[in-house]
Design goal:
4 helices; 105 residues; mainly alpha
C-alpha cells in the first residue's frame, strides 16, 4: 500500500517488528515543511471526527505537528501564545459559541 505521507520516527521500526517491510525517504527541508502542513490538516480532521475517548490522543498528535512546525520556522510556543492573547483581545474568543449565519450588504 502506498502512503507518501509524514509519519512519526518510530513507525518504520514498528512496521518491521510485525514482519512487514516498508520504505522511507528523508525529506528535504522544503518538502518537510509541505509535509508538516499536510499532516496538520490530517491531524485536524482526525480531531474533528474523534470519539470523546480518543480526543486527547488526537489533540496530542495535533500538538506534535504544531511543535514541529514551530521548530522548523524557529518560533516558540510563547510567541504563539502572545499573538493568541492579542487576537483574543482584539477579536474575542469562542466562549459565546456564536455562529455567523449571514451578512447583508
Amino acid at each position: 500500500m502506498q502512503y507518501n505521507k509524514l509519519v512519526r520516527d518510530r513507525i518504520p521500526a514498528m512496521i518491521t517488528e510485525t514482519g512487514r517491510q516498508c520504505r522511507t525517504t528523508v525529506l528535504t527541508e522544503p518538502a518537510y515543511r509541505t509535509a508538516l502542513l499536510a499532516k496538520l490538516v490530517e491531524e485536524a480532521q482526525e480531531v474533528q471526527i474523534a470519539a470523546p475517548t480518543e480526543l486527547l490522543n488526537e489533540l496530542a498528535d495535533l500538538m506534535e505537528v504544531l511543535d514541529n512546525l514551530l521548530a522548523i520556522h524557529k518560533l516558540t510556543l510563547s510567541q504563539v501564545r502572545q499573538v493568541q492573547e492579542q487576537r483574543l483581545r482584539s477579536r474575542g474568543g469562542f466562549e459565546s459559541r456564536l455562529q455567523l449565519d449571514w451578512v447583508g450588504e
